[in-house]
Amino acid sequence: MQNNSPTPAAWVSALPLVVLTLLFYVVIRCFGGDAVSGGSQIALLAASSVAAALAVVGYGCPWQRLEDSIVEHIRSATSAILILLLIGAIAGTWMLSGIVPTMIYYGLHLLHPSYFLVASCGICAVVSLMTGSSWTTIATIGVALMGVGEAMGLPEGWVAGAIISGAYFGDKLSLLSDTTVLASSTVGVPVFSHIRYMLYTTVPSMIVALAVFAVAGLTLDHAAAAHADLYAETLAATFRITPWLLLVPVATGILIARRLPAIITLFTAVVLACVAMLVAQPAIVNEVAGVAEADFFSNFKGILVTCYGSTAVRTGQAALDELVATRGMGGMMNTVWLILCAMVFGGIMTGSGMLHALTALFLRCVRRTVPAVASTVGAGIFFNLCSADQYISIILTGRLFKGLYEERGLEPRLLSRSVEDSATVCSVLIPWNSCGMTQATVLGVATFTYMPYCIFNLVSPFMSILVAAVGWKIKRTER
């Protein structure tokens, strides 16, 4: 539909963001960690109504245009929603099949609290680099490491921060990563050139993160780690612990390495875990189904409840009972609801032209190298805030600055790197962004709780600007 209505002024376009920020502040003060149970969703819809009213009443924007934009935004999020539901099923089946308890059991014996954080960051970085998926890395090995860290008594914010830092480092540099391919293709840079150029900012950021996690591991209180042996014994008494169960995550890694679609890979991982659950943990299947003797129907019921519903296994230790409790697909519904509401807000901001009016402010700053990189980084974070979606942020930032970088004689790979240093890694730091919502739900740690400890994600935008200021490996192109 052709846009014949005037573009809203920048100050008018900022009003919905101001309203959203104020509402989120009030909601978080009132509900705390339960903000995603409904309060945050209402805040997004309220801010969306403000944006829609300003666009329709104030600038004559047709409602159909806003509705079409909302539908397009929601359509773009459908894959993420399906993946999120499958991750919920993985969380339930991998836990009650004994896969995650086995990982935790061996982790408690192999990893020491003093170097657990730096080891977790490194492990997730390697796994994510090989698989190209931060989401899958966090949902599988990340969940297991989260359980080990909690059993050791380490602060959940530090553990989640180390896991996320490593996962997004590998995702950013992996040839298999969809964000890496998207950022390079949007700007028109060969993917290998894009990855090599990112090393100049990504590796220093990771070194800083590993150093912080190493120091934190040595200075944090390890008194609670004395319970680690007790927790390991309790897990062994509750679940059948066997290295054979690790074949499921190994098979999942092989499927990811073969670049099968994420939905197919995750569904296969659920099916394999269900089989492992029937073979290795028949007593737990009976407990979930609520029967004493197993038959086909009780097994079927136990498997389905594990996939979609809340489960609780009694271990005799309150801390472990909470650790092994799962919520399945049903536990993801608040996040799905939040994603849909965020897409409504992003759709109205885009369809009304308000997002375009706000981004025009960034373009005024693109004169020299450092302001150009700083503006690109700021735009990537800004689009994550407004559109609530990582992929939309990458595309919008790349397209917005592509022509301007060419006019200023700046390399396109500098643009693609700056996009990744901001739009890719900072998405997980925003509570209403699809990445932030997903990882907070998967790890069971609120976004605001883990945010200060995602060292790699926090350092990356500043490192991008710092490298630009130093001028390291930055060349001008012929105009």
Tell me about this structure.
Helix 9 (about 190-220) packs across helix 23 (about 455-470). It is built from 23 helices and no strands. The protein starts with 9 loop residues before the first helix and ends in a 9-residue tail after the last helix. The chain has helices at about 10-30, 40-60, 65-95, 100-110, 115-130, 135-150, 155-175, 180-185, 190-220, 230-240, 245-255, 260-280, 280-290, 295-310, 320-325, 335-350, 355-365, 370-385, 390-405, 410-425, 435-445, 445-450, 455-470. With about 475 residues, it is mainly α.
Question: What layout of secondary structure does this protein have?
Answer:
Blueprint: H1 10-31, H2 39-59, H3 63-96, H4 99-110, H5 113-131, H6 134-151, H7 156-173, H8 178-187, H9 191-219, H10 228-238, H11 247-257, H12 262-280, H13 282-289, H14 296-308, H15 318-324, H16 333-351, H17 354-363, H18 369-387, H19 390-407, H20 412-424, H21 434-443, H22 447-450, H23 455-470
Q: Please tell me the overall pLDDT.
A: 83
Task: Give the N-to-C terminal Cα separation.
Answer: 35 Å
The backbone outline, from C-alpha atoms, is globular
Low-confidence stretches: none
Taking Cα atoms only, what radius of gyration do you get, to the nearest Å? Answer: 23 Å
N-to-C SSE series?
Answer: HHHHHHHHHHHHHHHHHHHHHHH
Count of discrete alpha- or pi-helical segments spanning 4 or more residues: 23
Residues in helix, %: over 70%
- Tell me the major beta sheet: none
**How many beta-strand runs?**
0
Portion in beta strands? under 5%
- Which structural class do the helices and strands define? mainly alpha
